[in-house]
Amino acid sequence: MRTQKFLAETDEDTLKRITAEMEDEYHHIILRIWVEDSQYSIVRIELEMPRHPEDRCLDCIKNVEKLMGLSLQHPQFRRRLLKTLGGERGCSHVLELLHQAQDYTRSIFWDKPPDKNGRYTISTLDQEGEVRCIAFRKK
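The chain above was modelled as a monomer; its predicted structure follows.
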C-alpha cells in the first residue's frame, strides 16, 4: 500500500519549505523544497531515498539539483520537470511526487482559483499561467 504526505510550512522569514513523502513496500522517498516568498523559486532542494529497488534509482538525485532557480508558479513548470527528470534522467516516482507537491502548494501560492478557461492569475508575478489537464482536454 502506498502512502503520501505533504506539508508546507514557513522555514525562515522569507522561505517556505514543502515536504513531500511517498512510501510503499519498495520505495521510501522524501523530497524537501525550499522556495523564496516573492517569486516562489526553488532555492534549495533535497531528495532522500532511504528505500529503493535498484541502485540506479539514486542517479536522479544529481538531476533534482538542476531544478534550482525554477519557480513553482512558472507556466511551464511540469514541462521543465519532464525535461530534467523524465526517462533515464530521473525516476518516475520522484517526478510524480514533484507534480503532486506543486498541486498541493497551489492553494498556498496562488491568489485565486483558475477562471472558467483554466487560467491562473499570479499577481505576485504580474503574469498569467495556464494549467491544463491532459486527461480531460477540450477538443
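The beta strands are 3-12, 15-23, 28-36, 42-51, 119-122, 127-130.
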